[in-house]
Amino acid sequence: MPSSPVRAAEEQARAEAASGANLSAPDHGAAGGVDVAPSWPGYLANPAPEMPLASRQRGEVGKVVLKVRVDQSGRPQAVSVLHTSGFARLDEAARKTVAERWRFAPARRGDTPVDADVNVPIVFRLDD
């Protein structure tokens, strides 16, 4: 039975994104002499990573935080584990799903799409 671990995590990430606390975008300098604050990558409708069967059978649960480099087209270019869940299977299931199947609304500086990093928390629970 697949889990749906991103529901609560997406809400948390949206709140973090709104504060800008966990994001970074390259500084491309001033636009026309005016410094334009960047917008951050946004979530789209993305599939939840499936709980690995071996993890479900062993009762492994946890939260993994991924650092995702999102390019100007909204595709993940690099996905790494920023904070582990404590279980390699869960970390890899989350990393692989985000790297291969997720898309983002790209960050923008003014009207120009830019590469940016976003931290994506994914929670694996047995009750999903």
Provide a descriptive summary of the structure in words:
With 128 residues, this protein is α+β, with helices and mostly antiparallel strands. The protein has a single domain (6-21, 39-124), classed as Fusion Protein Consisting Of Minor Coat Protein, Glycine Rich Linker, Tola, And A His Tag, Chain: A, Domain 2, CATH 3.30.1150.10. 27% of the residues lie in helices and 30% in strands. The strands form 3 sheets. A 3-stranded antiparallel beta sheet has the order 1-6-7, with no helix packed on it. The chain has a 3-stranded antiparallel beta sheet with strand order 4-3-8. The longest helix is centred in the first third of the chain and has 14 residues, at 6-19. It is elongated. The N and C termini lie close together (8 Å).
What is the oligomeric state here?
Answer: single chain
* Morphology call: elongated
Low-confidence stretches: 1-10, 14-34
Please give the alpha-carbon distance between the first and last residues. Answer: 8 Å
| CATH overall fold name | Fusion Protein Consisting Of Minor Coat Protein, Glycine Rich Linker, Tola, And A His Tag, Chain: A, Domain 2
Biggest β-sheet description? 3 strands, antiparallel
Mean pLDDT: 79
Strand residue percentage: 25-35%
The proportion of residues forming helix, as a percent range, comes to: 25-40%
Count of helical regions? 3
User: What CATH first level would be assigned?
Assistant: Alpha Beta
Element-level helix/strand string: HEEHEEHEEEE
